Structure formats: structure tokens, C-alpha cells
Amino acid sequence: MIVWALSVAGVSAQSGPQNASSPPNIVLGSTSGGPGDSVVVPIYFTPPTKKRVNRLDLAVTFVSQNVKFDKLDKGIAAEIGNLDVHSDLSTASNEKGIETSTINITASAPSDATEGVTAGLLAYINLKISKNARPANISLTLSVKAVAPTEIRPGDLQVAGATVEVLTASPEPAVSCFFFTH
Asked: pTM to 2 decimals?
């Protein structure tokens, strides 16, 4: 059973032209699920106004004791823009000896593209919650490692991480009918 909810504050899920007041940003969407569930974390991108972005190198870091990276899927903006989107995973232990994972994500436009990396839903991060996970909020920290062309600095883009909320395991809900119970 897959249970998930999505919340993204202040970000439009539309692909297409942005208005002049939209700041350039990269945002992760928060999600939730119970033990054993698969959850999806969307990545949204709004490019700088009147500047072409040819390539983005991102890193998403999180404590991975109870949540494991499964795969990265292209979003609609990446499909429409024919972007090359790929990822690699590295794991380590933090200063407290707890396992952490970093998903390194690259999104790049083909050299013959007219628009570069387009606005909208770039990709989905698919995660799997451990069957033994206890209720918790797991922070996903997003950072921009590099942007091409280099006239756009990583600090020029606003970033917003997300949270994966691990819910309490509960039995299947009982469905009742009002007419049969009264």
C-alpha cells in the first residue's frame, strides 16, 4: 500500500513561462508515508529571468537509517525539454555515527536546445521507508553544487528542502456504511 501526501508552499507545479516577479529557485516537496511505504519527493525549478541555465548539479542529503533512496524519475519539465537527468548515491556516517545519504542529481539540456533547463517539475525522488521505521520527521537538505553557465552562481538560486514524515503504522481502515449501521 502506498500512502503519500504532497505539500509545496509557494511553488506552481506548472511548466512554462514564468512571470517577472518569480525568484529563481529549486524546491523539494514534502511527503509522508508509513513503515514499508514508498514515497515520492518532487523537485521543482524556476530559472532566473532572461538567463539560460544549461546544467544544474544538486545534492539532497538526509539521515538514511529509516529511509532509503530507490530511484530518480524525470518530471514533466525534463521530459518536455528533453533534459538529461541522472543521479548517483553516496552514503556515509555523520558525526554521531548515524548513516546519511547524499543523492547527487544532474539535470542538463542538450547542446542544441533553445531553452536550457526549463521551469517546472524536474524530477521525482523515489524513497522507501523501512518496515521497522518509527514515527519521525526526516529532513531532506537541498544544496546547489554548480550551475552552468558560470555567470549564474549557485547562491543566486533560492533553495528549499523538505521533510519526509514517517507516520505511525496502523491496521487497514475499517470501512462502514451508515445505512447498515443504523
From this structure: 0.80
